[in-house]
Specification:
Radius of gyration: 22 Å
Keywords: Membrane, Transmembrane, Transmembrane helix
Protein name: Membrane transport protein MMPL domain-containing protein
Organism: Pseudomonas fildesensis
Order of helices and strands: HHHH
Distance between the termini: 26 Å
Length: about 90
Amino acid sequence: MDEAILTAMHSVGRSTVVNVVIFSVGFLALLFSAYKPVIDLGTLVALALFSSGVMTILLVTLISPWFFAAIVPEHRADEREHPEREGALS
């Protein structure tokens, strides 16, 4: 399970970080507007995108092991520890 989470974070996590950076910087461009509500909107959206991206990465890496450990059947974990039992059961 740990290996699967690491693999997911190396592939999907990398694209999530790139997405957060690109969109946050894109909305930060609104800071150069002369119209105050547009500046506020750019700041708000950039901060919201950045914080949601950080929380996504943190929550996926911290909560997914706990979540998947709760739904994996116990007999499957036991079979991995004792592969010789598999042949005897078949």
